[in-house]
Amino acid sequence: MTLYETLATLTQIKDLDLEYVNLLVQRLEPFKLSKTPEGLAIWLTASTLFPEAKLPKGVWNHNDPLSSKDRGTVAKILRDNGAQTEDGPAGNSTGAAQSSPSFAWSIILAHLYKRHKPSKKSDEKVSDFEKFWLEAVDRKLSTFGLLSYVQRPS
Fold first, then answer.
1. How far is residue 30's CA from residue 72's CA, in Å, rounded to a whole number?
2. At what angle do helices 37-49 and 2-9 cross, to 10 degrees?
């Protein structure tokens, strides 16, 4: 959370050299931190507070972790509270859902809420917020419910 807090306070500095923001965001990827809860929070905050910041290419689809193609990855990162690579969990992730959610949940949900617009590509009137919620929360809970039902002794 320290890197995120640092980024959030940079807006208070007059005549900030954008290179500091660029450096902070660019250094996430070599250490595989872009696809962690804090990395997500930093990425979204940097892109919102500093739209001119140079975000690394190829990390997220359309340089947006909240794009529909990355929804499942982001949901898994937040549920597992750990890093995610193309091959699966990275770093010290246990693969099990954590009992206390990451601070990044509130940041990501706030970003999704600000984007609360139904999809324009179809007649479907479901917003990105609703789609993310279904992917990250509802499906996981219903899977848990099914598993607990199946595992009950008879």
1. 23
2. 10
Q: Which distant-in-sequence residues (6+ apart) come within 8 Å of 136 by Cβ? A: 71, 74, 75, 78, 79
In degrees rounded to 5, what are phi and psi of residue 15? 55, 45
Structure-token match 């929360």, residue found: 137
Q: The tokens of 44 are what?
A: 């979204």
The answer to whether 38 and 104 have CB atoms below 8 angstroms apart is yes
Cα separation of 111 and 128, whole Å?
Answer: 10
Distance set, CA 8 to CA 15, 41, 59, 83, 116 (Å): 15, 10, 21, 22, 23
Phi, psi of 28 (to 5 degrees): -65, -45
Rounded CA separation 78/58 (Å): 20
- For residue range 79-102, what is the model confidence (pLDDT) as tens digits? 887 655 555 555 544 555 556 888
Nearest by Cα to 29 from 66, 83, 73, 89: 83
The residue type found at 57 is K
Q: Are 129 and 68 in contact (CB under 8 A)?
A: no
Q: CB neighbours of 35 closer than 8 A, spacing ≥ 6?
A: 59, 73, 77, 83, 84, 85, 90
Q: Which carries the bigger pLDDT value, residue 143 or residue 51?
A: 51
Q: What pTM was computed for the model?
A: 0.75
